[in-house]
Amino acid sequence: FQVKSENRKTIWNAEEVPEGSEFDDTWDPREQPEYQILFKQCVGTEDVFFGMSRKDPSTACCEDMVIKIKLPDTKYSDIVLDIQDKVLDLRTPQKKLLLHLPYHVDSKKGKARFLSEEETLEVTLRVSRMFDFINF
């Protein structure tokens, strides 16, 4: 079995590099902040009272992923946030968080808000998954 490379000077194929590895920097001494991943689901009366849809309380039926990150002693202007389809990269002067997300997200349609009284950054991301018998 021989792998053909498009460019003979490359030492590996792009498919061999794990997604998000371009963000890894183990030398960075900043500590990781506390965070929490929550899931949101849109339900109506037909779901709650009648059970007419196939939705259940599992994460497979959720539309949004909410990541709450505790950032004490941080100003909103100090936060650098980069969202990819499977990776969240957050940097502040004191903290850094490289989070490999449990589901693919639509990185173009996310929103973030900083709750200064709680010192928490709340990032809401739309989960993008293929339609199946649950998500239609």
UniProtKB/TrEMBL annotation:
GO CC annotations, alphabetized: cytoplasm
UniProt GO molecular function: dynein intermediate chain binding; protein-folding chaperone binding
GO biological process: axonemal dynein complex assembly; flagellated sperm motility
Superkingdom of origin organism: Eukaryota
Boundaries of every PIH1D1/2/3 CS-like domain copy: 32-127
Homology family: Belongs to the PIH1 family.
PANTHER family: DYNEIN AXONEMAL ASSEMBLY FACTOR 6, TWISTER
Protein name as catalogued: PIHD3 protein
